[in-house]
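Troubleshooting log. The previous structure file for this entry was overwritten by mistake, so regenerating from the original sequence record. Sequence copied from the archived sheet and checked twice against the printout by T.R.
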Amino acid sequence: MTDPKIIELVKSMYKENVLPYNKVPCSGKCYDEKEIINLIEASFEGWWTEDKWVTLFEKKLEEFTNMRDVITVNSGSSANLVCAFTLASPQLGEKRIKKGDEIISVAACFPTTINPFVLIGAVPVFVDVELGTYNANVEQIERAITQKTKAIVLAHTLGNPFDLKRISQLCEKHNLWLVEDNCDALGSAYEGRLTGTFGDIATCSFYPAHHITTAEGGALFINDAKLSRLARSIRDWGRDCWCSTGRDNTCGKRFEWELGQLPKGYDHKYIYSELGFNLKMTDLQAAIGCAQMDKLEGFILQRKKNFNYLGKKLESFKNKLILPEPTKGADPSWFGFPLTVKDGNRIQLINYLNERGIATRLLFGGNIVKQPYFIDYKIPHRYPNELVNTDIVMNNTFWIGVFPMLDEKHLDYVYEKMREYYEA
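Regenerated output below.
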């Protein structure tokens, strides 16, 4: 237990970070002395790697999502990596994703949603997005399914859920894996149920820009016991042993196993059944996450409030901009406020905003097939339909922040600068 004097000192040293009304970042860390106190306690315990704080953080996430198992990792991208290698495991038999199999996604994505599937040899098949929701065109997904298709892999764009009902039905009909990249959507809901709880595997990120932060960090949400066991193995070097960090002989027969072509009795802690990595979260990160989880509901409410307020303010520009709209049946916990310039110059507009303290971001990779790495690595892919809206996103779309540190004064300032721009 940390000395109460230290806790009082931290409280006295912590200064609330208040943003000036004319500084509007896209995102940022929202924390107070509670995260610092947890971090100090975890530091003094001296364990630092995965232990009790990780266990507590995973439990809090399980309770929030009502999922059977939450597996923490060191980033959202690592969560996607573990997900892909899990679905490629030979232990899944005919349903495993093998080299040359196809996965369906969108090209208007963040690279690490699809990159892990490229690494296992899968071929991404890209469908177009719908302007306004910025999620996948479901009709194109249905037409893109072939005998080679093994999975549908989609993110909830900027926190706006994709059409989970129809896409889940397609996965069930064609016996496909459904992967939800929930990195931007923690707290979003579809027909009353949280996103991240529909897919066979869902992933989440705790990078400082996201709904909660552990500095770097991520997680997988899984309800299936076999997938969960495979994912934990791949996260933990690919080992067959399931002992927690610092524990030995959980199975009670550590020197009695006979697997592969190893001699009988080979130490189970050093038997590897999966192609794995070391992607675990540390207790220091999880200690921050535990404090963040206690604030998550408030963060979600503030994001929704900010989004709705800004949406009403920007209604007057709907002849100039495509305003965002939630997917039918969805209740998004918005990551950002996307806007698409109808006529005019996006660069001119975002430069105008940036020069006045309003940060902007593009919609991630724009059209991923036109990114340098995708061309230089000659990544196999196909797209059955022209990616018309994806190219519009690439050329005309950007987003601005609605994260919890912003309030109505910041959003009024955004509106005033937009009004000045269009009046000029």
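The two ends are 60 Å apart (CA to CA). Archived copy saved in two places this time.
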